[in-house]
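Quick one - inputs below.
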Amino acid sequence: MEQQARVQEFLRAFHALKAEVQKVIVGHDEIITHVLGGLFAGGHALLEGVPGLGKTLLIKTLAEGLELSFSRIQFTPDLMPADIIGTNMIVEDVAGRKHFQFQKGPIFAHILLADEVNRATPKTQSALLEGMQEGAATVSGTAHPLPAPFFVLATQNPIEMEGTYPLPEAQLDRFLFKLRVKYPALEELNEIIDRTTRPRDAQVRRVMTGQAVLAYRELVREVPVAAHVRELASLIVMATHPRWEHAPEPARRFIRYGASPRGAQALILGAKVRALADGRYNVSAEDLRAMALPALRHRIILNFEGEAEGVDVDDLVGQALESAEGQSLRGREVFFR
Amino acid sequence: MRAETAGLERLVSLIARQVRRRRAEYYALRGAFFGALAGCVPLLLKEVLGTSAPFLALGLTCLGAVAGVLVGLSLRLPTVEAARLIDRAFGLQDRVATALEWSQRSDRSPLVDALVADALARVEGLDGRGVVPRRRPREAKLLPVPLLLGLVLTLAPPLPLPSGTLPDFSRPADEAEAPAERAGTLLSDERPKGGKREPLQRAELMERDLMARQGGASQNLAGDLAALFKDTSLGSYRPDFASFLKKGDERLRMLEQVDRLPDLQRDFTQSQYKMVFQKMKALAGGLRPDQISPEKLRELLAEMERMGRKGGNWGGEAWEGMEALEMGQTDRALEAMERALSKMRAMEERNRSGRTLRGGRDDQRQGGRGRDRGGVGPGEFDQDFGEGEGSLPGTGRGAHPKGDPSRRLQANPYDVGVEGEARSGRREGFDTNMLGRGANVPSRLQYLGVYSQYRKMMEEALAQEKVPRDYQAQVKEYFQALEER
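Output:
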């Protein structure tokens, strides 16, 4: 069947791209899967981790595996919005007449690596907002469409907060996933030492075109979601809201603002990619469980008590998940309904 | 039933039948328990019901079970719930439920066909039997109890039912004199045969004659507590409840006079006017001029006159009042005292310093207004700051952008101390005294943890420019000082 062939092709391409990235990156299997999930879901991803864990290398390797343009912006406090978007320059034509010509900035690339995004001022960070949401950059009243697919991968460092500008909530919400890059395990560390301290022989092949990425994005959106699974996603998001009547106690106590509807969208889209990558044609509750953390952790804002107690948002998402599953069954088993 | 999903729907209906059957079993056991329990009642009444009692008990038990079966069968199970049961039972990750739901939708996506085919392929060959486990209610464990009880009651001889009538608690008037005869031997044996009760003494006979205790000549009896006061002045006192009530009335009247109640939040000794006013109110409150004591009035006027000599302008009025008092004109003396009080109050208001919300002192503003009236134009103090200037950082006249430090900052920096018990730890710290509910709940936040949290929040606030630039150094210094402590 044609649809089954499409899904099989996606599955093949997904795993081929992942294998290319894993030629360079050791471990981080889940992070790579989620980054690819963000790519095929049509969103953007924010990678958070201490220096030296391979965040930038992962993104660069991913860009190498795709036949797409790539640009990298190292965010610094003196970076200006025009340094990202571009600016109008006065140029002289052959007839000697002068006119303005738009010089495109580094944002005009398929894959944009915003390295250490929290080091730039909020003004500069917000220059990314329009591009991430609308796929266009407006300069002097003229909107310039960004190339498709447009995929922003940003990194930030959770320590060394001196002189940084934490991303505002509005911009955080634009990221489909926030991924926490953790330290590698002992075996992985050994492997990293082996790979990186000898002549590099790993050649990353380009296994996917931009057109293929766009086609896969369409395929992802066709994956059906059952009503009870959709309801579970909504319940998970609602359980992060402290004022919801069925919100779990920790959410009421420690959360100031819960996840936005974009959180529910991210949850479902991420779950669809995961289902396809697993060779399934439907989204299951298990997919939602797997995607809850990356899709929701950056959309929850702690209150003062939560900040003071040092509450981990991941724990709160886990409790919201448990509460939502309890709500989904409405407290009674099917047998007694 | 759609042809493409026929296989799925067949499995779903099989599971639904299983669920109904299990429900019927479940509720039948519960019904049988309650039926058997109810069946014990006719067995208890076997003496009355005769041989039909066991059949009645059996019938009730069966009726309960049948009712349970009917309840179990009547409960409906939605298709999607049955499909979810299949998904869970066979680990199909919601394939069957999604396929069944989307196959009936008009906006089905192209992937649905692939999904249905996939689900069919996976359920093919699955044995749907035994998917729904048998459940036993709590009552099933207890069912043998009423059954055994019923069996015992069936085999046992009929229980004798209590006969007779209930005792008559009503008591005729003519039997009141002879209770023993009416109650029979039982009551008369149990109760002690005491003599006739003495009638209760009337209240007037119990009143004590306190007059007999007056003076020291009266005889003291053992246990007489009043003897304690024999040689004291209290010994001759009689309790005067009328005076207590009278005093109570006076206190109630006092409560009604709100202005006479002391305001503990104010220090009246700081204000001459208020002090004298209070004294005057205490002297003349509620009395006519002819009822006021002339001596006390003279004393008050003399005090006012003394205060007037020290810098007040009400000395004349006080002197006038004293003269009127000499002539026996109390009302004129009171008028003079009120005038003196008015002057005293006016002077105090003039002397009151402090800035209002507009800024500047009262007398300065009044001066400005005076100049306004004179047509000179706005005075120097009518506006605290010039055009474009203000109390905001960097906009004042002073060279220092934050303005001059307040008086409190110049005061003793150690005016606030922390009292408490010294804490053990590598940093100096105290367990301070706490009141209220918080006293019973020790803090769960460690000082170092809290400090680092707050420091982080401070840094974020500075980074996000929530703190004005001119104040950032001050905020940093504050946290630095905390760290050093």
